[in-house]
Amino acid sequence: MARQLNPNQQKISEKLIILNDRGVGILTRIYNIKKACGDTKSKPGFLSEKSLESSIKFIVKRFPNIDIKGLGAITNIKSEIIKSLSLYYYTFVDLLDFKDNVCEILTTMDALQIHLDITLNFELSKNYLDLVTTYVSLMILLSRVEDRKAVLGLFNAAYEMQHQQSDQSFPRLGQMIIDYDAPVKKLADEFIPHQRLLSSAITSLTKIYPMRNLSAEKWRELQLLSLVGTPATLLKAAKTDTMSCEYVSLETLDRWVIFGLMLNHQALGHQDLITSMWISALDSSWVVALFRDEVIYIHQYIQTTFEGMKGYGKRISEVKECYNQAVQKAGLLHRERRKFLRTALKELALIMTDQPGLLGPKALLIFIGLCYARDEILWLLRHNDNPPVVKSKGKSTEDLVDRQLPELLFHMEELRALVRKYSQVMQRYYVQYLSGYDAIDLNFKMQQLQVCPEDESIILSSLYNTAASLNVKQVEENETFDFRAFRLDWFRLQTFMSAKSAIRIVDFPDLARLLDSMVFHTKMVDNLDEILVETSDLSIFCFYNKMFEDQFHMCLEFPAQNRYIIAFPLICSHFQNCTHEMCPEERHHIRERSLSVVNMFLDEMAKEAKNIITTICDEQCMMADALLPKHCAKILSAAASRKKKDKNKKHMDDIRRPGDESYRKTREELTTMDKLHMALTELCFAINYCPTVNVWEYAFAPREYLCQHLETRFSRALVGMVMYNQDTMEIAKPSELLASVRAYMNVLQTVENYVHIDITRVFNNCLLQQTQAQDSHGEKTIAAHYNTWYSDVLLRKVSGGNIVFSLNQKAFVSITPEGCIPFNPEEFSDFNELRALAELIGPYGIKLLNESLMWHIANQVQELKRMVALNKEVLIILRSNFDKPEIMKEQFKRLQQVDNVLQRMTIIGVILSFRQLAQEALVDVLDQRIPFLLSSVKDFQEHVPGGDPLKTVSEMASASGLKCKVDPALSNALKAHKPELDEGEHLIVCLLMVFVAVSIPKLAKNENSFYRASLEAHTNNTHCMAVAINNIFGAMFTICGQSDIEDRMKEFLALASSSLLRLGQESDKEAIKNRESIYLLLDQIVQESPFLTMDLLESCFPYALIRNAYHAVYKQEQLMH
């Protein structure tokens, strides 16, 4: 037997690595089983079925000796039970197998008389202690799985029914479940043969543990993590005699100490160092982690274990005292540590950012800092989630809530990012260190070995050759390094030298320390990602998701911590580190959780930034509104009354002038705006901190979240500022809306100062959508609202009377006393307002407005055609007898709906006059925005070769707001109403022209046809017919395609002039009441027409009559006033 136990052949190191990994895998599976059984929704359905309730009680009561004869209820569903519970059952079988392997390796290590000392054989001691604590955690967790007996018993009963024999593993499995109902007592008995080995490992911890479990005051005294404290050593490599021990988690050390001494409790009281280490560990926590968020209240657990043992009264009272100490003082101790670490990590991050070269020599400090910070975060999470059972007086609960935690998390992420960013700097440094110092030192120490067995000699030579062969060129050429074999060889060598060997590790501590530091140096070259996970992985937050979200929201509400909030989304990328290949089914859930949480965090951050920006925008809009001319009336009125009465001086001072908010009495008094800008700056720092957050295979862009929120908010704000009320038909003036939009855009433009986003893209997306009828969400836009308002409200009111289109004011003007109409039409239709509208909705929006107006015109034209059809015969006679006054007079009397035709032509004229205003406003805007492009369009329009047969140039010119001989938009609208032309269409158009021409004199009867010279407008908008006649007939004859527009317009002029001349012979005063005003209409038709000239007019109608008419109307208006 002694011959077989050669340490070189036992593969202790390999077995420890494999068993530790498998232990974590089984822990993961048992953890998931415990969670599933503890939740009514996810536990196996059989355990909740009422029909199986008595069978399950029977199984649990008789476990593990179950007689299946009493379980008839499960006979019919045995295969379903096997299928459903096999995963659970075989996990317990795997645990049994793991237990056997652990017992075997512990026995082998005992037999080899291995000596453990964590300061010398770190890998061996660490893996041994990890295996022990994993084993203990597994057995304790097993004892806490609620339905373990029911699951195993039910599966085995179903298995026995199907195979007529129980599963071969069940007897041992059942016994293990019974044995480990009180796990610690059983484990302590089990470890009696292994006490020597366990004692040596725990005793070695006394060399490192006391220096790890120190207060923040002690850390300050020692200038822990400080680079500037000792400037002389700034460039020297940070190193200690126990490099690998420096960044072992304190939580891991506590578990080693507490679980180790629970199994080896005989050592307590015999050695002062061990006892003080035990008390120190129990003083600093009241819960100890088993796995993930599973913890045990350790003091109560130990008390229960010790209570049945003789002579342990002193130990029990010691544990009770430790519990009181932990509850009263641990919270404060850890709070102060976190406070210290916040400043220490911040200092490290600042220095390393400024001088990345220091990452080489000071790498150890970075990982120590990360490890210490992670310990404190783990402590806070576990203790916040599991408060003390007996609440003490004092502030312990306050110490469990840390509003500054995001700052610590952020500095950890900052250091992690620096390590990743400058990994090549570290590689260069340590490749040179390994080849230029470590290899030489190792060679020197190897030569001092007087005796060296063959296996040890081969490993040492291999280690030396690996280190000596390195050079910087490998880094420069991006060669992939892999030192796993180097580290495994050193692990093997530790095993050989710790057992009975010619060279014992305790005799060569310097060699052990050198190789330990070399292991750290190799990790800096090829294993940075893993060491980052080892020292700063925060995937634990995945299992404390409520606290994770609470901390995030607390940070969001606390402006002083806003800039650190990006740490929360970044931590979501850690979640995948907690998965294990032995439990692939949880991988999906963890992935989904991390993706949904990171999405939620980034969305809430962007939403909060958007809300702050919106508040600032609203304030700026109010300030911009205060500068509008309409608000100066109050100040002018107060100033005027002040001149009259000095008594009103006080009243004048009460009126707040725009700009008052800029005067400050003191800089210290922060206004609401100051606070909002401060909060925005902080939050934008977080959003701008990194371009992407990589979680699993997805990349999340925080800035894009902000862009999307700003786009949505800006779109809604734009429509909101229109203030369109469908019930009262109220709407904002375009100029006021434009002022508000500009104020809003000015604020959004400043966001670019804080975040690298393209705000112009946001403007383009939103404002372009506002030129369409609907935005991307299907909501109505600025263009849609104004389109509705101008066509359904303003122009309808014009048709109803009391509003006229003034040619000299270029606006629609009210001619009734103020208040008769709910709005002043000139405030919405003057050139400045329509120019503002054109700026807001652009050519697309104006085109949309045109289409709507043209649709209304096309409907009116359809009605006019209907009336022509009604009077067709009469109109044909009138057309052919225009030079026979008597016939004309007689036939005219036969015409039906003459007033209707005139009214409809006036409506068309009003619509087209408004359209002309809008087009002129658009040209003015485009002339400022795109002068070169507009001049090119004009050039095309004037010099197009071949007369533009396809009408493309006309359409382009019309879309740019330029006037065309024949309006393409009107032509298209009329075509759309009657796509197929019939032969009689041309005749209908000619007869409509005749109808209008012979009807014009009838307008003279109407008392509202009076021409107001001051407005250059007829009171009933008759002057708008000039625009209607030229545009409508121009378009209709173009559609007919007979190229006779000019001839037809001459015919119209002849008809109209002869009809008007007959007014001169009219004896009825009523019929010629406004004759002069109607004469002017003929002049306006010719002036508006691109086809008629003044010479033609002179040949048909004496200009003297028109001149006299102008004189008469001007005189008449003066007499009226």
Structural write-up:
This protein folds into four domains: 1-206; 423-536; 538-631 and 670-771; 811-1120, no CATH class. Helix 20 packs antiparallel against helix 21 (509-526) and helix 42 packs across helix 44. The chain has a two-stranded antiparallel sheet with strand order 1-2. Strands 3-4 form a two-stranded antiparallel ribbon. Strands 5-6 form a two-stranded antiparallel ribbon. The protein is an all-alpha fold. A hairpin with a 4-residue loop joins strand 7 and strand 8 (1017-1018). 65% of the residues lie in helices and 2% in strands. It has 46 helices and eight strands.
| Biggest β-sheet strands, sense, barrel | 2 strands, antiparallel
Low-confidence runs: none
> What percent of the residues sit in helical stretches (DSSP H or I)?
55-70%
Gap between N and C termini: 134 Å
Major beta sheet, strand line-up: 1-2
Total helix count? Answer: 46
Structural class: mainly alpha
Number of strands: 8
Strand proportion = under 5%
Taken together, the total number of domains comes to 4
Shape by Cα distribution: elongated
Rg, Å, rounded: 46 Å
List the topology elements.
Blueprint: H1 12-38, H2 53-62, H3 78-111, H4 122-143, H5 148-163, H6 170-179, H7 183-190, H8 195-205, H9 209-212, H10 216-221, H11 250-263, H12 272-283, E1 288-291, E2 294-296, H13 298-307, H14 313-354, H15 363-385, H16 405-421, H17 423-447, H18 454-468, H19 472-476, H20 484-498, H21 509-526, H22 528-536, H23 545-556, H24 567-571, H25 585-626, H26 632-644, H27 649-654, H28 672-688, E3 693-695, E4 698-700, H29 702-722, H30 734-751, H31 759-769, H32 782-799, E5 803-806, E6 811-814, H33 826-829, H34 831-870, H35 872-880, H36 885-894, H37 898-929, H38 931-943, H39 952-959, H40 968-977, H41 985-999, E7 1011-1012, E8 1017-1018, H42 1025-1040, H43 1045-1061, H44 1075-1088, H45 1094-1100, H46 1103-1120
Antiparallel strand pairs: 1-2, 3-4, 5-6, 7-8
Helix pairs in contact: 1-3, 1-4, 2-5, 3-5, 4-11, 8-11, 11-12, 12-14, 13-14, 14-15, 14-16, 15-16, 15-22, 16-22, 17-18, 17-21, 18-20, 20-21, 21-22, 25-28, 25-29, 25-30, 29-30, 29-31, 30-34, 32-34, 32-37, 34-37, 34-40, 34-41, 35-36, 35-41, 37-38, 37-42, 38-39, 40-42, 41-42, 41-43, 42-44, 43-44, ...
